[in-house]
Amino acid sequence: xxxxxxxxxxxxxxxxxxxxxxxxxxxxxxxxxxxxxxxxxxxxxxxxxxxxxxxxxxxxxxxxxxxxxxxxxxxxxxxxxxxxxxxxxxxxxxxxxxxxxxxxxxxxxxxxxxxxxxxxxxxxxxxxxxxxxxxxxxxxxxxxxxxxxxxxxxxxxxxxxxxxxxxxxxxxxxxxxxxxxxxxxxxxxxxxxxxxxxxxxxxxxxxxxxxxxxxxxxxxxxxxxxxxxxxxxxxxxxxxxxxxxxxxxxxxxxxxxxxxxxxxxxxxxxxxxxxxxxxxxxxxxxxxxxxxxxxxxxxxxxxxxxxxxxxxxxxxxxxxxxxxxxxxxxxxxxxxxxxxxxxxxxxxxxxxxxxxxxxxxxxxxxxxxxxxxxxx
Amino acid sequence: xxxxxxxxxxxxxxxxxxxxxxxxxxxxxxxxxxxxxxxxxxxxxxxxxxxxxxxxxxxxxxxxxxxxxxxxxxxxxxxxxxxxxxxxxxxxxxxxxxxxxxxxxxxxxxxxxxxxxxxxxxxxxxxxxxxxxxxxxxxxxxxxxxxxxxxxxxxxxxxxxxxxxxxxxxxxxxxxxxxxxxxxxxxxxxxxxxxxxxxxxxxxxxxxxxxxxxxxxxxxxxxxxxxxxxxxxxxxxxxxxxxxxxxxxxxxxxxxxxxxxxxxxxxxxxxxxxxxxxxxxxxxxxxxxxxxxxxxxxxxxxxxxxxxxxxxxxxxxxxxxxxxxxxxxxxxxxxxxxxxxxxxxxxxxxxxxxxxxxxxxxxxxxxxxxxxxxxx
Lengths: 376, 376
Description:
Two copies of one chain form a homodimer.
Chain A: E1 2-8, E2 11-18, E3 21-25, E4 27-31, H1 43-48, E5 54-56, H2 58-63, H3 67-72, H4 76-80, E6 86-88, H5 92-97, E7 100-105, E8 108-112, E9 119-122, H6 124-134, E10 138-140, H7 152-177, E11 188-193, H8 199-210, E12 216-219, H9 228-238, E13 248-250, H10 256-263, E14 269-271, H11 274-280, E15 283-284, E16 291-292, H12 312-316, H13 319-327, H14 331-357, H15 361-372
Parallel strand pairs in A: 4-5, 4-14, 5-6, 6-10, 10-11, 11-12, 12-13, 13-14
Antiparallel strand pairs in A: 1-2, 2-3, 7-8, 8-9, 15-16
């Protein structure tokens, strides 16, 4: 299903064919936490801003409105009115970051909902069942996201359990995909490499994963507090061990610079809340660095956020108007900034793909990093 | 500039030609308080949902971001990227409802900004200057909005002062329209009839106003706590005294039923925050009554809010999805409900115009009121 079209150094230009259409990689997945992009962005908007694939959070959908209800409504695609690919995470990250009273056992995790304190159990089977109910294009394996920092002993035990959980995920998803009435019987499974910043654990785990013939391979537990240099070092050590003819996904990353560096190390898939979260705070991305749209200097500025940008915001509205909306706490201000930022990310990925196609990725990366400056 | 195209009983079908295009009446003005419709609705959206004319609040623009800044940016139309008509209110209503430490004198009103307590003076000249800076299509005269209830003595004195203020508004707007560099030198002025629920004061004031040859005539100080029947009684007494060959505007009104009753009494223009405010709370209008989209009954409901509705929300999204968004406090839920409600209002006005054109307004009104039920 994944075709490696071209390489440029370690950078990969690929194509993943799915039941919901084709994903050209490298790609940035636009994060729709609760089956909606924060900032009043609709699925109609997503098409306008060039989104190829959308990510929805399994944990959030499970605790509200409930994956069984989504299944009764025909799955996430029909629920959201989005006919292109959707990746669901495993719920693990939220269980380990949001939920309360957490207890990890071999069978899975006991925790309390962050919404109402109700007791929930989630293990590999439950995560697969929820994701199967949601009917996403790509399901993620249920893993432990170990705390950062963690002792080497803790990390090794955690990664070993994550491997055992992955086995259970495969068995359960195979079973679910074979059931009658399954929303998406061709749901794919990506496994997740863990190991924190311990290179040897990462490497050993990557070797274990690559022998499992999964639909794709993710790196989890990065961008959780370690330095960018540590993250790049782990990518250097781990990505070359993962199958080149399968997609590689760096979870929760990151800044434009992080993405450029990770593409340069062979990563295909990205997701991050930065563009939507920053947009809601009036922080916008441009090819000349980030701008804080609340700054007084934009009060009389009739230019679009970025002259020449083709996004719906820059096509129609000025910096002065956007600043006014943000100052007046009008929701439209947040929406316009989020639309611009997601367009910026999606457009950058398109530029990256074009650069790899042309064998000019190094020159593109150098120029992009230089023009954006350190703030990105 | 206003042409009375047809009457059907007292109902008027008119057309107001302005420098910013034509307004077909009866019309509902979509309320963009601070140069934006609340609910993340952009001016691009307004075109899709059939908005002819937008209303912006003079007071809000004066206290934040400031009308002088808007003037430097070429006026409200350019600021918002909206090329169709805009009506600005006088600021009076907000001065009398929002502002603090209010002191009314013959020259105008001294008050403190509700934002930062800063001291502001606004009289007829200041209101005209602000509205001239904003460059709206139609400016409203600066009036006192008397409290409800008010003694007859207070009301008479207030209305007399409002008449003197109107004289000063006309003189000042004439002067401003003649200045070089005025944003819209063809800015129109509507006067405002006041008098609370005192029929004799209303009638006397209407007679005074009609002799002043204004661009349009508004009824203010209604829908401020009196019963619907009292409001209709005042309309019955007052509207027939206003020039039929000029537009009549019932300020701040109202429910769909209020609008139907007022059209039936000769009113052309309406504005109200109900559709956007209710939409933000998940309350939506349909031809079969209002619905609370948070209700459990919509959890598994795959229908659009109103089957057959042509709005962007009903075209793409289900009740179940909208309920989920509202429960998850996703801004998109508010936006979708606001878009539907404004479309509903704009579409109802179109139906009203068609019914008057066909000489079938009474039948249309009766059927619409019956189908919507009492909740509207």
